Amino acid sequence: MIRPKSLEIKYNRSLSQQYSKYVQHLESFLQPYNDTLQEANVDCPDGVYYDQDNLEEKKVCQFKRSVLRQCSGLADPTFGYSEGQPCILVKMNRVIGLKPLGDPHISCTAKRENPLQMQYFPDEGKLDKRYFPYYGKTLHANYVQPLVAVKLLLTTEEDFNTELTIECKVEGSNLLNNDDRDKFLGRVIFRVRVSK
Fold first, then answer.
1. Domain of life, per the record (predicted)?
2. CB–CB of 29/3 below 8 Å?
C-alpha cells in the first residue's frame, strides 16, 4: 500500500491547493510515528526478529518518524511536493506471524526508458526484521508497520508534465512479488504527474 492513499497523484507544484490534500493525508498518517509517541516503545536491535511468543503482553519496536528524514514532513512540511519531488510512503500489509527471510527492502522503478532517480528512507528501502513478527491487533495493540519513504527526484524537463508509472516491490526476501494471479502481491503500481 502507498500513502498518500491514491494510485494517481497529479498536481502543479506551484499551486499548493492542488497538493495540500496529499500533504494533509501524509501528515495525518504519520501521527502515530511521531518520535515523542515512539519513545514509549522499545528500541529494538537492528536485523533481528523481535520474537515474543512467550510474552502475554507484546511490546512494540520504535519506528520514529525522523527515520524518514527528508520525507518525514519535519524539515519540509510539504513532503517535497512544493519542489516537485514528492515523497510516497510504501508499507506492507500486516500479516500475523510473518518472518520474511533475507533482507527485505522496497525497490521502485519508473516504467520508462530512462531511469528515474529516487531516494529511499530508511537507507536502501530497508524493512528491518525487528518489526516482525506481528501478533495481531489484540495482542500487539500499539504496533506500527515499518515504512519506506520514496522521494521521486524529478529534475529534468522529461520528468515534468508527463505521467510516470512507478512500480514498487518487496525485494531481497522470500516474499512473493510476481504472481500473475495477484498483480498486487508484494508490489504496488501508481501514477504520478507533476507540472511546474
1. Eukaryota
2. yes
Give CA–CA dist 143/62, Å, rounded: 9
Residues forming a β-bridge with 1 = none
Write down the pLDDT at residue 95: 84
| Residue closest to 95 by CA, chosen among 131, 124, 60, 45 | 131
The CA-based diameter of the chain, rounded to the nearest angstrom, is 56
DSSP alpha helices (H): ranges in 30-160?
Answer: 35-38
Alpha-carbon distances, residue 91 vs 5, 52, 53, 57 (angstroms): 11, 22, 24, 25
Which domains, from first to last, does the chain contain?
Answer: 2-195 (2.60.40.1660)
